[in-house]
Amino acid sequence: MKFTGEKKIYSITWVRKLFSSKVQHEDPQIQQQAATSNQVPQSPKNSLLRHFNITKFKIDLADHFGKEDKVVHYCTRYLDNFPNSYSTMCIRAGAYGKLKKYDEAIKDLDSAIQLRPRRFMAWCLRGVIKGLGKSYAEALNDLNQAIVIDPIDCFALKWRAFCCFKLKSYDQALLDLNKVILLSFSDAFTYINRAEINKKLNNHEEAHKDIAAAFKFEDINKALAYGTRGVLNLECKNYQASINDLTKVIIKVKAFDLSSIQKICNLINLII
């Protein structure tokens, strides 16, 4: 089974929520115009501010309906007039990332980092984008920098664990997911991923505990969990248990999963 970090992709909404809680006064141009609007209600600047508040609303609306191309379009319009908007650069980069236009995303994030190198978000997102592009070592450099700025951001910790796993740095990946769980920011994927790491480290008992913990979440991907446990049972030579789990994978996905079927056939031969 595969480590599931790349399937649990960030959302632009997550980017926006993080800005609302962490970033204040990030667009000096807008703050200045907002102050002016209180004094001169009918000024051209006031009209411009209202226009671009509408553009921000359109960005939110496009994001809500999953229209990443529209998010890019409206972010570009906004940046044409407010080129130093750090948050908008990051939001557009997030949209580019979901469109798999990684080069464009990196350009936006390079600009954002150059503009505000002590801010967390662009470092984190650039690490995520590089991870999606399978440049795991480069991604680690950016994620490490993000975690230096904000040591308890669980999103960055999860992605660093993913990159460490891909680079076979299993001990560091385990430390990061342990911290995520300690900070109460875990979900079913966190435990399934930790089970994968523990399996790689031959901590089979701990891996079984992780899968059991994952099943306690209502939104668990059961096919993924059964598949992970099926392979784990196979490695532990619990052949009948492995067959049971891999059979459940086929039932859950309601399709012929060739990998699972192959494993089941091999296991039946072993038992016979």
Task: Please summarize what this structure is.
The chain has 15 helices and no strands. It is mostly helical and 272 residues long. The protein has a domain of 152 residues: Tetratricopeptide repeat domain (Serine Threonine Protein Phosphatase 5, Tetratricopeptide repeat).
Could you describe the 3D structure shown?
- This protein has a domain at 1-152: Tetratricopeptide repeat domain (Serine Threonine Protein Phosphatase 5, Tetratricopeptide repeat).
- The longest helix has 21 residues, at 44-64.
- The protein is elongated and about 65 Å long.
- With 272 residues, the chain is mainly α.
- Helices cover 75% and strands 0% of the residues.
- Helix 5 packs antiparallel against helix 6, helix 5 (86-98) runs parallel beside helix 7 and helix 7 (120-132) packs antiparallel against helix 8.
- It has 15 helices and no strands.
- It starts with 11 loop residues before the first helix and ends with a helix.
Query: How far is the N terminus from the C terminus?
Result: 25 Å
Count of alpha and pi helical runs:
15
CATH class of the domain at 1-152, please? Mainly Alpha
CATH superfamily membership of the domain at 1-152: Tetratricopeptide repeat domain
Q: What's the story with the biggest beta sheet? A: none
Order of helices and strands: HHHHHHHHHHHHHHH
| Strand-residue proportion | under 5%
Total strand count, please? 0
Pfam families: TPR_8 (PF13181)
TPR repeats: 86-119
Keywords: Repeat, TPR repeat
InterPro entries: TPR-like_helical_dom_sf, TPR_rpt, Ycf3
